[in-house]
Amino acid sequence: MSRPGLSCPGCGSSNVVEDDLYCQSQLVCVDCGSVVSEGVLANDPVGGSDVSYSRTTAVAKRPCTNLIKGLQRLKAICRTLRVHGEIEDLSQTYYNQAYQHESFIKVSLQKKEVLAGCCVLVSCRLLNWPITLGTISCLLDADSMVVGVVYQEMIKILNIKAPIINITDVMEAHSQEYKISSPHVPEEFAENSKDLTKRAVALVELAADSWIVTGRKPIPIMMAAIYLAWQSLKPTKPRLKFSLDKFCQMAKVNKHKPAMKRIAEMKEVLCKLGQEIPWIREEVTPDNVIKQVEDIVQYRYALLRRALRTHENALLECEASCEDSLTAPSQTSELVEKTPNSSSVEQCEPKAKNTERAGDGDDIPFTVSEPHGDPQDSQDPTPNWGKRVLFAPPCVIHAKKRRVAQPELKDVTGDEEISDSEIDSYIRTPREARDFALTQKMLSTSESKKS
């Protein structure tokens, strides 16, 4: 194929065509055979595309997009929590290490985002910055169970020994989330953050002494303590009528359902201690115990010792009265005639309850198995000791009943052995025999009259 516009420099002919010589294309004059142009291979690349110099000489790989987004999310969490630069740098270091690990490199984007929050959490705990797992879950808008699983997996992979934080150290940071200062709420509902934190910490310490904190999540306990502290600092009618829902709406925080149970448990402990205050003559109930919180918190150690002493004395009086009733034969026979299926120790139970109400306001009955009662009730060899003491862990007081393995059903062949108790149930008493004979006689008489 001739090329228009080209001429041979030797003979001046315009008959110039392309001639492929191996892999190099040349322009050759047909008339004289001279090469018009060459070196096309050096000027025009054959196949492939241009590669930039920076790409051919790159030493380090560029971080992927998800890693960059994760680091940006981590920085945003640090800015929201207002932590110092050392925590932010440590969080980025842990995130880069965990992200490159095989356990996190091929996971969902949600798990990678949760990983960023977990790195911030462990960095805060290592550098004594009080942040809870619930706070991180709220910032990430993720389930606390998912955050907890990723956190445990991360510290195991990176071999980090994170310290366990104390709930009282977190109270100050947690109480600042409640917008109940004077610029946010009316003056009658406003409260100083320092006073609120001090009273809430005292209530949490009292809850720890009475086993309420044991095995519980910290956020509902802190919410209950802040709510009761807010009411007790100024126990006016408007505050006492404020429910937890309205309080959370006013403070602009999300309500946790378990906080209602923690409030009831704390009020129960406050009532037990409030009844030991010498200058209080009226009965202390959950409705009016908020007014006595300041005195209870101030003298809580003395009130705890006094309540335990009163409870021990009540138990000793109950045991003494039960022993007296057991040694009196006439009283014992009368009790057995009245209630043949109950023991004399159980007859002492109402007296013990009255004594304990006068002492500490808590009902702690004795649980004694009945000797002639239901055999299923008497099979429990370990009675609930949590009901005998004044303060006990919730898992002991409200112990879950273990499921009893049901025996497998066997085919009845008729050759099974019959126990003596079962045989006795089939044998009729003389009275039953007379009644049965009388019934048969009446039936036969009625049939004869009909015929």
Automatic annotation (TrEMBL):
The keyword Transcription regulation applies. It is found in: Nucleus. Residues 4-37 form the TFIIB-type domain. It comes from the Eukaryota. Residues 348-360 have a biased composition (Basic and acidic residues). One of its GO terms (molecular function) is TBP-class protein binding. GO terms for biological process: transcription preinitiation complex assembly. It holds the Pfam family BRF2-like_C_cyclin_rpt. The keyword Thylakoid does not apply. Gene3D superfamilies: 2.20.25.10, Cyclin-like (1.10.472.10). Its main location: nucleus. Coiled coil: none annotated. One of its GO terms (cellular component) is nucleus. Keywords: Activator, Metal-binding, Nucleus, Repeat, Transcription, Transcription regulation, Zinc, Zinc-finger. PANTHER family: TRANSCRIPTION FACTOR IIIB 50 KDA SUBUNIT, TRANSCRIPTION INITIATION FACTOR IIB-RELATED. This is Transcription factor IIIB 50 kDa subunit.
